Structures are given as structure tokens and as C-alpha cells.
Amino acid sequence: MTTLGFIAKNALRNKRRAILSVGSVAASLFLFIILQVGVRELTLPVEDVGSASRVIARNRISLGQLLPAKQKPTIERIPGVEVVSPFTWFGGKFRGEEVMFAQFAVDPDAFLKISVDAHIPAEQAQAFTADRRACIVGKDTAAKYKLKVGDRMMIEGTYWPFDLELHVAGIYSGTPDDRNIFFNHKYLDEASGGGGQVGTWWIKVRSPEEVGPVTSAIDKAFMNTSAEVRAETERAFQLGFISMWGNIKTLISAISSVVVFTLILVSASTMSMAIRERFRELAVLKALGFRRRELFGFILAESFGLSALGAMLGVGGCWALLTFVPATTLTGNFFPTLEVTPRMLGLGSLVAAALGIISSLAPAISVARMSVVEGLKTLD
Amino acid sequence: MDTIAAPAVGHPLASSASSEIVVAVRDLSKIYRQGEINVTALNNISLDIHKAEFLTLMGPSGSGKSTLLHIIAGIDRPTKGECHVQGVDVTRLNESQLADWRNQNVGFVFQTFNLIPVLTAFENVELPLLLTKLPSRRRKEQVKVALDLVGLSARGHHLPKQLSGGQEQRVAIARALVTDPSLIVADEPTGNLDSVSANEVLGILQALCRDAGKTVIMVTHDPKAAAFGTRSIHLEKGELVE
Amino acid sequence: MALPIKYNVRNVFIRWRSTIATIVGVALVVAVYVLVQALAVGLESSSANTGAPGNLLVMRKGSTAESSSQVKLDQLRTIQYLDGVAKDTEGKPLVSGDVLILINLPRRENKGEANILIRGIGANGIKLRPQVALMGGRWFRPGLREVAISKRLSARFANTGIGEKFKTGGHEMTVVGQFDAGSSAFDSEIWMDGDEARSIFDRENYSSVLLTTTSDLAATNLINRIEKDKTLSLKIVPEIGFYKTQTKTAGPIKFMGAFLATAMSIGAIFAAMNTMYASVGARTREVGTLRVLGFRRRTILVSFLLEGAFLALVGGVLGCLLAMPMNGLATGTLSFDNFSEVVFEFRITPRLWMNGLLFSVIVGLIGSLLPAIRAARLPVIASLKSI
Lengths: 380, 242, 387
What we know:
heterotrimer; A: alpha+beta; 54% helix; elongated
């Protein structure tokens, strides 16, 4: 029997307690990681490749105010601007219910040029551009509602006072958010009785370095007009959305801390209890000549072992779940992606390690203080 | 109450001894499995115990004396045979019936006292009465009587950890008495006591037998303790020896 | 006959070294549950608390939120003079055509920006909303770029004190008054003159129309009339009823609260289980003795279940106490109904306290079930354990 074997046998002596300890650690670490992942998704949207050279311009008043379509040529003339597309949120219902995917009216040609990461077969792209009533659907939504090319899609207007009758010209994938559908702005213009207004402008800039000057130029161009503009990088725009959630991040961080604290408390006491029950054995070992140092080692090794096992199950389990099951399936398309970063894995392991140490503290101190005679008298 | 009595020597024919048979054991055997081996704890024991006897069961470790005691007291079952206590064959009772029977008919005194640590002496003695239909007032009266009998009425509100070993055992005896059972069963009651306390306790048991007409069966390996009894029987390897 | 409950209570407190961690664990779970649910309740009650009885709200048919509804000018003109619409002392219809605008303003202390709802109201808009009371300054004058802002909202956004000015898209607005809306949805709004708002923000149509009727019967008739009119294509609902449905934001919060609490309670259940197993393990001789004395198996089972429940209940009470200081704390978040900031307070109702305690008891019962069964199964001979 090796030392390691001895420690293992000890830990598993009371299988039920070992399982409960490991289970408690695993459950809490799993929750801890999930919270981290959720917060990250909510507060740090996934950055895609083309983001760095894209700009979104909205009405300075708020996203709720529209912009005049006639602003387009002015923007196109600004040096550094490559492509401009209107980008108007429709916000409709599908099949009678409110949905997880947004519908945007765009200029198909410009849109396809700006959105470099969207993969779509050439003939589908062509069909989208050619047909005023066509739309392209993200693969996650297509999967969820079992849509294929050629299908009709009726979108009921809530924000806009009319419905849309679209047909699916193509299915795209490869973007960070493959849920949305895009249709032709000309259709929106028609249906709204003439058009002349857009929600926002989606702009591709020649290079990331020119983004700063371009946004300033856009703002300046419309200063003191009836529709002042706020242009910002795509990233800043996304983050602006998130800052509207306000305290959510703080709230979830606070909850995560509470969870971690509870976890440490509960698991530490569980493992301490386990060790305290074995004072008699430890006293016998002491009597046999094992030194305090070695007894500490046993205790530490055991609690580390248990928390390591719990960590593997909890952290590892969470990682496996989120890596192998698509987020869209798990959350019904609420989250397009859920990612466990190395930082989170590291944090989880750190917590588990802290746990291992803290759990062994109390028993270790008691063992250090204990006299052999007392220990032998201890009731098991 | 003078609980310190001189050990009675030999077989006193006190007026408390009578010819009524309280416990009748017939062909009692107990075999249990320990791993791969069958161990015979008791081998065809037959025995009569009379009312108001103070019987001591003696023998070396593993002789079966405790097993016999446990079966008579209704906390263990034999493999074969019968045990009648006041006409009731305890080996035929089911668990619930046995529980009720024990509550009313047997008072058990343990070597390790077995008082409930979180209850006071008074509350410990009251425990068996909670299983009866007695109203609270009557219960409390009976507890007082029992505590008086063992001389500890002043200590009713103390927790077991505030009592000495001897006092704990006396509380345990009060608990054993409180439902007024006819049979008192004691398993090495003085094993964890110093000699002064031991004598006190044995004296009480003796008085219960002599003055209150209770039948006391005690397991012990100590001849000095056995001397307090009215009769001794010896067991060895599961059998009665002369 | 049962074991006295004091037996269990005392055991929980005497074994405090092993029970304390479970108690604190349960306390934290309950506190988190109560607090997150308190957010949801706070949100819902600020919605539910909105509106005056007898008021009817008119919106475009099919709209789920005021901000996405549109009512045309001529529709308003038609509605105003319909039978049953009440009139004010001057004989004018008690009707307010409202326009809802979303503007983006910076928060105080550089905490980013958020959307706020401006409600441009008609001349009788204030009269129709008696729950809103002016707290300081004065109401805005029609035709001017003056606004009155909810006091609670003003506390969160920069440049919104009385006398201060803020800019939106090049238009400068002056804050002339602050109001208190009695913890209703209006506490998350800025109010100004409706026609001025339509002009500044380039709105041809109104968003909604609020009115009141001369009697309940008149109300019913009016509703029928409008709903049946195909040319109008409007819907009309009681104001209070409508606001009660504007609770989209509370949903996800409730879900999160339930999810968190359930997940955390798994840990708490494990902890309770461990504590109770340890308890049973340490009291093996005791349990055996109780059996010898005549107590039944199921009495033992119930006793340990109660002990586990009590243990967790202590945690539950502690958790409620921990959550208590947050009650009434003001906060805000993004409303999913209007995409604007909604201010509300943590609201811990008696029902929520009860749920928290109930939750803890359930955790305790589940956690102690297996240990209690173990205790009940202990043989009577356990009383004779020498160690």
C-alpha cells in the first residue's frame, strides 16, 4: 500500500460522505461557472472579424428616432467610407408569438458587402438581391422553425403598423449571431407608405484606423440639422446597449460572490467534519510515530483530492456541456453562444484549490493540538 | 435514603422471593453469521426465573450471557426456542408489539448509562412515560417518585454532563422504573463506575428487589457485584454450567 | 407518541459547530432567492400600481406596448366627441392624446447612458392621472420646451434637477418640476406638452389616447363601439388592466431567481444531508436507547426529519434577516416593454418571506430524508454500542 493508496482509502472510507462532499463542490462550481458564462454573454457580446472596421450611426436622440434616408449620399461621400446600408429594426412577431430573432430591413447588395463573415451560397445571395420580397434567414432560426429556401414567412408588425409577407431566398451562417433575418428595405419603404426613413446606418470603413475620423466626420456632417447623428464603432454600439442593463452585471457578480462563499463554507465544513470524525485514527497514527507534518499532509491531500474531483466534475462538466451542446439548443435561441474561457476555468480551479486548503485548516489545527491520549479516547 | 447496603451474602430467602415464575426460557438458541462462520451464542438454554429474584448472569466474554439478557428483555430475537415473560411469549411478538411491551414491562439499565445528553435528568426519566396515555401532571408526579427513590430529586434540572457517573446511572435506574415494570434488566451496570458508586447502584437494585418486589436480572463478570444478587447462574460457550 | 420537539431543537443548537455551516448555507440560498424575487415583485408592482379606475386607454389594434402604438390625429378627433366620454369643468373632453418618445441620456456618476421615456401629454393629461403629484417646481407650460420629471428618475440621470437643462439631439429641454407617481410606471417617465413633443421629435401621430367616461355603462358602450369599428382599427382597454400586462421584464428575473435558488439549494441539500448524517452517526447509541424504551421507527424517522427541517428553518430565518435591509432599495433596469429605463424598488412582500421560509423547510426535509431513514433503520442493539 502506497501513501497515496492510504490517503485514497481514507477518503473513500465513508463513501457516502465522500460523494456528498464531491457532489457539493461540483454543484457549486458548476453554478459558479454558469454564472460567469451568463454574465459574459450578457455584457461582452462576441466580437466578430469585421467588427473593427464597421460603424453604426443612429439618431442622436435615441434608437427610437428614425433618420432621413436622404442622409445616405452625404455619408457615402465621407473619405474612408466604403459601403453604406440602411439597417432598420422591424421588431415583429412570428407565428403569433414574440421571438428571439430580430428582423432587419437592409439594402441587400450593400449588406452582403459589409457583412464579411456571413456565409451564403452565391445563388441564394443573388436571389436575395433580386427579389424585393425576399429575405435571408440565419441558420439557427431556420433550424428552430424548420424553414427552408422557398418557404413563406409572415411577420406581424407590432412596432410598424403593417405585416410583412416574405419568402426565404437563402440561409446564412458563420456570423456570431445566426438568428436574425434580413429583408429588402424597399419593401419596408413601400409598406410604410413611401418610406424616406431608416432606423440606423450600417457603414463599412476602409480600415480600422480610419474608423475614428469617420465617426467624427459623420457626427459633424449632421450637426445642427433636424436629425443629428451619433456614429460609433459597432463594438461601442453593442456595449452601449449593454450599459442600459445597468446594475445587472453588478448584481450577478454579487450573486456569484455569494455562491462562491456559500460553496466554500458548505464544502469546507463537510470535509472538516469528515476529518474530525477520524481523530482516533489520526491519534493512532501519531502514536505509531507519524509526525505532525505527515498528518497534515494526509489531511491536506484528502481535502485537495476531494475538491479536485469536485472541480473536475463541476468545472469540467460545465465546460463539456457548453462546448458540445450548442448554446442555441440549450437556451432556445436566447443566447447565440455560450463560451467558457480559460480565465473562467482558471478561476474555478483556484476556487477549488482554496477550498481544499480552507477545509483542511480546522482539522489540521486540531490535529496539531491533539495529544495522543486524548485522541485515542475520542469516540469515533 | 441509605443506598449503601452491605452486600448480602449467599442466597437470602427474603420474603420478596416467591415461587411465581416470571420468566420461562425454553430451548433457546441463538446462532448468527459473522462473515463466513456461524457463531453459536446460545445453545438450547432452558431456565426459570422467579418473581423478586435478583439473578446474576455470569461468565467469560463471549459466553452468551448478554445475548440471553437481550432476548429476555425483548431487544434481540432467538433463532430457536421460546421465552415467556409473565405469560407473554416475547419471541412471537412483532416489532411494534415488542416496543410497547418493553415500554410497559421492562426497565433497562445500560453499562454506558445511555442518558439523552440534551435532556435534563427529569426529562430523561420522563421519556418512557411519553409513550403512555398519562396526562402531563400525572407524568411529572411519577417522575418525582422515581427520582426520589434513587435520591436525586434535587438534581432533576441538571444535564447528564453535569452529573457524576454514579448519579447518571441512578437517573438511568429511575428511568427504568418510571413505568413501574415488573422486570429490571441490567447489563454490566457498574462496569463504568468507581467502587463507591458501584455499591450505591447495586444497593438500589437490591432494594428494588427486596422492598418493591421487582425481578432483577443482571449481567456481570464481577463476583463482588454478583454477591448482591439472590442467585447466580453461569454460562460458558452458550450453555449453562453448574 | 412523538418525541418532544425540544429534543430536536436542543440538538440543533448544541451541535452548533457542525450545524452552523449548513445554517449559513441555507441562509444565503434563501437570501439570494428572496432578493432576486424581490426585484421581480418590485418591477411588477410598479406596473400593477399604475392607472386610475375608470380610465380607458386607446391604442392601435395589435399593439402590445404604448411606445409601438400609433393613433392618428383624425382618430383622436373622432374619439374625443364620442358618446360617453366625460368632460371637464370647462366642457372640454377629458381626453389626453399622448406621444411616447425614447431619448438617450447620460446617467449620473458616469454610469453610462440609458433610454428614458418622454410622455408628451394633452391638456387634460395631468387631470386624468391623479396618482401623480407635483413634488417641487411647477408643471410645464404648453408650447414650450419645458419638462417635468419623476423625482425617482431624476435621481439617476444627470442634468435633470429643477432648473437644469439637458440636450437631446440638438434640442435643449428645461426641467421645471419634479413629480412623484406613487411607485407606478409613471415614476419612470419625463412629461411634457404633447404637441410640442410631436413637433420636436417629428411625430405625425400620437402613440395612445387616455380618456375617462361618464359611467361604467358608458365605458362598456364606448368599448363596444370602438372595438367594432373596422375603419378605426383601434383597441381600447381599461388603463389599470393594460399596465398590469406590461411585465415582460419581470419574467426573466423570476426565472433567474428560481434557477439560482434551485441550483444553490442543491449545495444546501448536500450540506444538510451531511450535517444530519453526522448527527445520526453521533447519536447511534441514543437512537438505540429510544428504541429500547419503546419508541417506534417511524417516530425516529419523523423526529430526524423535523430536526432537519428545523435546522434549515433557522437558516431560512437568518436568510430573511439578511435580505431585509435591501427592502425598499431603489434601483433601475432596462424595461423589455418599452426599452427604456424603469425605476423601481426591491419589494419583499409577506408572501415572499413565506416562500423563503417554505423553501428552507423543503431543503431541510429533502436533505434529512436519507439520514432520517438511516436513523429509523438502526437496530435496537445499537443502544449497546460500547463506543
